[in-house]
Amino acid sequence: MLTSAASAQPACRTAVEEPEFAFAAGCLIRHGDRMLVVRHRFGGGLGVPGGRSSANESAQCVAHRETWEETGLNVLVHGMLKRFRNGFALYRCELTDTAAGEVDELAVPHSGRSEITGVNWIDPRDTRPADWRFPRDYPEILRLFGE
Fold first, then answer.
1. How far is CA 145 from the centre of its chain?
2. How deeply is 27 buried, as exposed, middle or buried, from its count of CB atoms within 10 A (0-12, 13-18, 19+)?
3. Which one, of 96, 93, 67, 95, lies nearest residue 80 by Cα?
């Protein structure tokens, strides 16, 4: 298990500015044939790192901040992949610390412990809809992972 260093929240990092706003946003992070997922404390389902926005925060910065809070990783946020029916905006995010992609499990940072019980690299094709926090979104997550 790799532990991330505790530090102050980094500034939002985006590859391109998109003036989108969303009540919630997150990151799809792919490293080779694996995707970074978090296991939610309530219900135990898998999901992408993400969460709710704060006042005057762009959707990209929500995705960046929530990913950092839940995983301890400072990613680079690219363009939006999908806005789901519930309004959740999913962005393609780039892992900038490649060492973090070479392990199976990351330690949950202190900032994420109230919501998250695990941070893992998985092949989402090895999971089932019932494994996910939002099972109806599973086919779309698989499709986006494959692109």
1. 12
2. buried
3. 93
pLDDT at 77 over 90: yes
| Interval 21-52: pLDDT, tens | 788 999 999 999 999 999 999 999 999 999 99
Number of residues that make up the chain: 147
CB-based burial of residue 94 (10 Å sphere; 0-12 exposed, 13-18 middle, 19+ buried)? middle
* DSSP classification of residue 145: H
* DSSP string covering 112-135: GTTTEEEEEEE-GGGS-GGGBSSG
Distance of CA 96 to the CA centre of its chain: 14
